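Researcher:
Attend to token order:
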Amino acid sequence: MLQRIQTLYLLLSAILSGGIAFVVSFWKDNAGKEFFLLDLFQEIDWKLSSLLIVFVLSAILSLISIFNFKDRKRQIVINRLNIVVNFYLLGVIVYHLLSLPGESQISEKGIGLFIPELVIVLLVLANRAIQKDERLVKSVDRLR
């Protein structure tokens, strides 16, 4: 059902991945120029340019999971796949930040770097709520 708490968690994760990720900055360089997600698409490095596609994929997976509310097991699998996708995002971002030599390029980190962590937390909360619903349905089936 669409009025469950996991729908809210999944909707928030879709909004974070598909909307807010394009609005907030990820980091500033020494010149003070802010880098947004669309700016990273123009990078030569394929890992950074893949971030745009993977953020959109994460948002699409969250929306697909919302509308699979009748099949809770499939919903859990889609959420787990989305968690793996967000771990990829987190890994690429952390690798890029740690592989740079000192303060040569990035002087200030932005709030956009925390989006994958927030999405992972929301997806874990959604999975817990879905599993709780699954246990409730199984317990009612035992009473019949």
Observations:
- Residues 5-138 form one domain.
- Residues 25 and 36 are 5 Å apart (CA to CA).
